[in-house]
Amino acid sequence: MSIVREHTTRLLDNSRNAKETTRRDQQKKRCAAQRFSSGFALSSKAQNCAHAAGFAKESRMEIRRDPITQSWVVLGQRESIGDSPQPCPFDSGVVEKRPSILTWPAEGPWQVLVISHPDPLYRIEGDLGRVAEGMYDKMGAIGAHEVVVETPHHDKKLSQLSDEEIERVLWVWASRIADLKKDPRFKYVAVFKNQGLLAGDEWSHAHSQITATIFVPRRVKYELNSASEWFRERERCIFCDVVRQDEKQGKRIVDVQGDYYALCPYSSRVPYEVWLLHRRHNHLFEQPRPGSNRRQLAALLSRVLRRLEKVAPAYHLVVHTAPNTLSKKGELAGYWKTLSDDFHWHIEILPILEKRSKSYSIKEVYFNSLLPEQAAEQLRSLDPNT
Length: 386
Known about the structure:
The chain is of the alpha+beta class. It folds into 2 domains: 2-78 and 88-213, HIT family, subunit A; 218-381, HIT-like (HIT family, subunit A), CATH 3.30.428. It contains 8 helices and 14 strands. It has helices at 2-35, 48-52, 163-180, 218-234, 238-249, 294-311, 339-342, 372-381, and strands at 62-65, 72-75, 100-104, 112-116, 131-133, 136-140, 143-149, 188-195, 207-213, 253-257, 260-263, 274-278, 314-320, 346-352. The strands form 2 sheets. It has a 10-stranded antiparallel beta sheet, sandwiched between helices. The chain has a 4-stranded antiparallel beta sheet with strand order 2-1-6-5, with no helix packed on it. The radius of gyration is 22 Å and the shape is globular. The N and C termini lie far apart (62 Å).
């Protein structure tokens, strides 16, 4: 009997170890995907890698500033990954049990739903608590973290929705950005979407996320500074210049719908990187220009995503809009005079290929083996309707 008991115990231990190894492997994949980002809130989840190794089971969340790189890093977040499959929290009949922030339509069965993130990076309640530790700065993880459930259908991707359905999602993104910007504490509101395991996708149900932060992400600050300098020297929007030149040359254009353009940037960071821009100048995604047709943007986004899904199993999508101008203090205090003239909202999509590339491992000097002209030509040749 003791031999049987010992053998059974060993089997149970092996099973538990195998589950733990699987859980850690899944977490490492998420961490690797989250480390490669555009400097938005999704990248701040990279600190979860430490927790994957079993560190800091419980800790108070805080935001720390790197005085050298000017980056803000969220610390103390613990991502919960169960060992056994759980019911999808966004399926109809389940998600309705959570308090909703926004429901579209307001009456009847929902088509798009916004809820608070079940395990948020940032929380609206609490004290900012900005303090110094010698030369270092830190503060509480104040902000907002929301999930946009893009469809009630569990088995549909964003790319598989109709143009009308995608337009609803775009409208919800804009509505939440505008509403969160009413809080003067929030300096930036980001919309991002991670699709696929390699991108750190938290749930398979089609969803995107919105974060409002009390700092401006480093990637956005780079863009703001470059746009400001370009406008100061030339009195033109750098993004408008990009669209005009690429429109004239044509070789990096992937697709066009009305006044909306999809192109592979001249200095693409990764293979098949695509930006979506409006031909007419506008710095606020959440405030479309009079006469703008967001259905055209929805149609273009749908075709681009279907093309990208033919060449990459996962992607990051990030909406870049102007910062919140209610707060004119702090890191961008002197910037606001030309913001509406020099910045230009756009959507960046960064695919992740299955084959690991140096593009994803070199963080500041990117290596991309595929010329954007070649990438655009290949994407144009793909039929998004098949």
